[in-house]
Design brief:
The complex is a heterodimer of chains A (677) and B (169).
Chain A lengths: L1 H39 L3 E10 L2 E11 L7 E12 L1 H5 L3 E13 L21 H10 L3 H11 L7 H40 L5 H59 L5 H38 L20 E14 L2 E13 L2 H4 L3 E7 L3 E9 L8 E9 L3 E5 L6 E18 L2 E18 L6 H12 L3 E10 L4 E7 H72 L6 H10 L5 H24 L32 H7 L15 H4 L8
Parallel strand pairs in A: 4-5
Antiparallel strand pairs in A: 1-2, 2-3, 3-4, 5-6, 6-7, 7-8, 8-9, 9-11, 10-11, 11-12, 12-13, 13-14
Chain B lengths: L1 H14 L5 H16 L5 H12 L4 H15 L3 H12 L5 H9 L11 H38 L1 H17 L1
Helix pairs in contact in B: 1-8, 2-3, 2-4, 2-7, 5-7
Classes of the chains: A alpha+beta (677), B mainly alpha (169).
């Protein structure tokens, strides 16, 4: 009975001990690999994990974290990581590491495989949007840009004279086209009126009267339209005068503007700094921020890993008798090799007081690292939640004994290359939450400056650039960083830009003076040209339109007079004939004939007056108002009322014959007169 | 072979066979209590050790723990409220402080509302479950024992042991 109880329990205990002895390390290895893979999103290799409980310690050999974004590369790799836990704290669920060592720490090493997890899409490595913007700005051709900026100020299209001159010319052109259109619209109407007037004689007498009245109305309407056009033409002159004055004022204003603008020209020093130094500085900042961002992502991934499967619940903040953080790495010493410009550089450092609750610990976490050799690097990262702003500060300096070169511009056009001697980079960055603030500065001597051009750059520009750069022996540049980690604002400033700008200004001064003179002359010439063009155009158009209008008006008045006379039943035929013959409504030949007729009528009248005074033609003639138009159907315009039947009977023509009314009856009335159609 | 099979047979008997209905019902209640407590803390391990140290039916206890673990996560909100109600009582503050300062006790995660709530729930359910399930085990203990003895695993192990003994004679 006793063995039945003891033996199973003994077996269970033995299995547990066996698990702790042989199963914990593989389990930790498995858990470690999968947890880190979940954090990094790429393969994690651990050669071995060994733990011991007495004393509690662990050692990890051959750890390599692959990069998710760069296949075939490791984010970091280390040969050995060993640490010992403090047992007293461990029994109280606090992980206190007194001393830890990390050896053979390297970054960005090459892997044998691509390091990607199966069935996982490799994210495309894209540069941040802010960096793309900045690099695009920095890649603009600096000299061309400066030249264009300078001469943009001399661009004629920017001047008021150009714009106003073109606008006025277009406006007046449109205006004259409208007036011409209106005048052209009147011509057919006048022509139509004349045609109607010609056809009037072919109509029967009564219709002649009706048509005459209608013609008179149309003539009145047309006359009003022509007078309206005439009125518009009269308004042209004052407006034109006003516009010409405006154009002249614009010319004076522009000339003054050009003088002031060119006097105030100064090359944009900020732009010069950005194009010359921007690329290197922006890339440094982008790399730095990407490290910070990656670290933040890994930190959040680690927190996700530590979250339990079951509901998290709430933790009562129990203050033990000796409160301290749950995790506290007191000291970690690390050493390794880093690659700077593809050259291995030995480095070492310490990490102190890394804890899960720095506030409780009351100590800031400090990472210090240094590298010596051709590149001297000092890095200090301090995370101090006890500070007022609760920020992490990164302070770093890098002295490059070998130096390097920066280049601006494209080699096919014009490239500026500056060899830097012992450049020193200094970084000071404060991170608080998602916000950041700080600067990255570069302080360097200039060893050599070369300006090369393979393209067709103007020699004077090349010489000006060389002259400007010859005096630059050292410079400082600083990039102020602010904003958020994902979207930082980077403002670059440098005295290099100012030095260059000053040199360039002097070098360009002579050219600008020439350009200024040419520009002023050009403005004067252009304004005069605009004025002449405008005046000439307006004058010719105005003259033409006025002439046409006057002619139209004259014709219309004539038509109006004739139609008024024709439509009058008591009209004097002689007067009508005279008006018709003198008008331009009939052809020359018809007018001659009518003048002859008129002469014959006059002669005939005189004879009649002498021989049969008052028989045929009552003297004086009855006033038109006393003649009843409705009772005398033969009362045609131009003929005497009441006498036409007698005249017709005398000549042997029946009164009912109405084949040749009006003027066409004259040959029958007057002997010797031939009416030739 | 005998030495290898005997412990297994004894373990099997201890787990499934030769248990009284009371041991079965108590084992079930203890299993439920263990199953309700979230894993990953010392409390669950200690409870498991205590259970293993008793003569309760381990097989039934494992069944109870499995069932409780399956449904326990659905009641985390309830456990959280209950646990927080206990933890936040001012008169118990000194108790928690003292407990938290002792070795090993912080590993039980007693200051977590879900752990505390589920543990207290398990304790409260212990006796009711025992009394409720005992009549069932009274009725079906023989059936379960017979079913266990007839299972192919038990028959294989006991038969192999007998044959081994006969062979050694």
């Amino acid at each position: 009975m006793r063995w039945k109880w003891i033996l199973p329990r003994f077996i269970i205990v033995a299995m547990l001990v066996g698990f702790l002895q042989f199963g914990v390390d593989p389990l930790l290895h498995y858990a470690g690999v999968h947890s880190l893979q979940a954090i990094t999103g790429a393969k994690v290799d651990i050669n071995s994990v060994s733990t011991s409980f007495f004393p509690p310690s662990a050692r990890i050999d051959g750890l390599a974290l692959a990069s998710r974004s760069r296949p075939g590369k490791n984010i970091l790799e280390l040969n050995q990581l060993s640490f010992r836990l403090e047992p007293h704290s461990l029994s109280r669920r606090r992980f206190v590491v007194r001393d830890a060592r990390m050896e053979g720490l390297q970054f960005d090493t090459v892997r044998n495989d691509n390091g990607q997890l199966p069935f996982q899409q490799v994210p495309e490595e894209t540069e941040p949007s802010w960096l793309a913007e900045k690099l695009a700005d920095a890649s603009r051709d600096w000299l061309q840009e400066m030249e264009s900026t300078a001469f943009e100020q001399l661009d004629p299209n920017q001047l008021q004279t150009w714009r106003l001159g073109q606008t006025l010319y277009q406006e007046w052109d449109t205006r004259f086209q409208e007036l011409s259109g209106e005048a052209r619209g009147l011509e057919p109407r006048v022509k139509n009126l004349r045609d109607q007037f010609r056809r009037l004689r072919e109509l029967p007498p009564i219709e002649q009267i009706e048509q005459g009245v209608r013609l008179a109305q149309s003539t009145d309407q047309l006359l009003r339209d022509v007078e309206n056009l005439n009125q518009q033409l009269r308004q042209v002159a004052p407006r034109l005068k006003s516009d010409v004055e405006s154009l002249d004022n614009a010319r004076k204003s522009d000339q003054e503007l050009v003088k002031n603008k060119i006097a105030a020209f100064h090359p944009d020093a900020g732009f010069l700094s950005r194009t010359l130094l921007g690329r290197d500085l922006y890339l440094q900042i982008a790399q730095l921020l990407s490290w910070v961002e990656t670290f933040s992502e890994y930190q959040s991934g680690l927190e996700d890993q530590l979250r339990p499967e079951r509901g998290d619940g709430r933790w009562l903040a129990v203050l033990p008798e000796h409160p301290s953080p749950d995790f506290h790495l007191q000291n970690l010493a690390f050493s390794g090799i880093m690659s700077i410009r593809k050259e291995p550089v030995a480095w070492h450092g310490t990490l102190t007081d890394l804890s899960s609750d720095s506030l409780l610990l009351g100590q800031p976490t400090i990472l210090q690292a240094a590298a010596t050799g051709a590149n001297e690097i000092r890095l200090t990262i301090t995370s101090d939640p006890t500070a007022e702003d609760g920020t992490t500060s990164i302070v770093a300096s890098w002295l490059d004994h070998d130096g390097f070169s920066i280049a601006a511009g494209r080699p096919e056009e014009l490239q500026l290359r500056v060899a830097l001697e012992e450049p020193r980079w200094d970084l000071n960055l404060q991170l608080g939450g998602k916000g950041l603030k700080g600067f990255l500065s570069l302080n360097t001597n200039v060893r050599d400056v070369s300006v090369d051009s393979e393209g067709s750059v103007r020699p004077e520009l090349l010489q000006a650039t060389r002259t400007a750069l010859a005096s630059v022996s050292q410079f400082r540049a600083a990039a102020a960083i602010s904003g958020e980690l994902k979207k930082p604002r980077v403002e670059l400033s440098s005295d290099l830009g100012h030095q260059l700008a000053g040199g360039m200004k002097n070098a360009f001064a002579e050219q600008f003076e020439t350009a200024k003179t040419a520009m002023l002359a050009s403005i004067d010439r252009k304004a005069t040209g605009f004025l002449d063009q405008l005046k000439s155009r307006c004058e010719s158009e105005y003259t033409r339109l006025s002439k046409e209008n006057t002619e139209l008006l004259a014709q219309l008045r004539e038509v109006q007079t004739l139609t008024a006379a024709l439509s009058s039943p008591g009209g004097n035929p002689g007067l009508v004939l005279k008006q018709v013959s003198q008008s331009k409504l009939l052809s020359e030949r018809d007018r001659n004939r009518l003048q002859k007729v008129d002469g014959t009528i006059e002669e005939f009248k005189q004879k009649l007056n002498r021989n049969t005074k008052g028989v045929l033609l009552g003297a004086p003639l009855a006033p038109p108002a006393s003649v009843p138009r409705a009772t005398d159907p033969l009362a045609l315009p131009g003929l005497l009322p009441g006498n036409l039947p007698q005249l017709l009977q005398k000549s042997g023509t029946s009164s009912s014959t109405k084949k040749k009314p009006g003027i066409e009856m004259l040959p029958e009335i007057i002997p010797g007169l031939k009416w030739d159609r | 072979m005998f030495l290898l099979l005997r412990p297994v047979r004894l373990l099997l008997r201890a787990m499934v066979l030769d248990s009284t209905p009371a041991q079965m019902s108590l084992g079930f209640a203890a299993g439920v209590m263990i199953g309700l407590v979230p894993r990953g803390n010392l409390l669950a391990i200690v409870l498991a050790f205590v259970l293993a140290a008793t003569r309760l039916n381990l097989g039934i206890a494992a069944l109870g723990a499995l069932l409780a673990a399956l449904i326990g996560s659905q009641f985390d909100t309830v456990f959280d409220q209950l646990g927080w109600m206990i933890l936040s009582r001012p008169e118990l503050a000194d108790v928690w402080t003292w407990m938290y300062s002792q070795p090993l006790l912080p590993w039980t995660s007693f200051n977590n509302s879900v752990v505390m709530g589920s543990f207290v729930t398990g304790l409260l359910l212990f006796l009711p479950l025992h009394f409720c399930t005992r009549p069932l085990f009274n009725r079906y203990a023989c059936t379960l024992s017979t079913y266990g003895k007839r299972s192919w695993l038990v028959r294989f192990i006991t038969g192999a042991e007998m044959a081994d003994r006969l062979g050694s004679v």
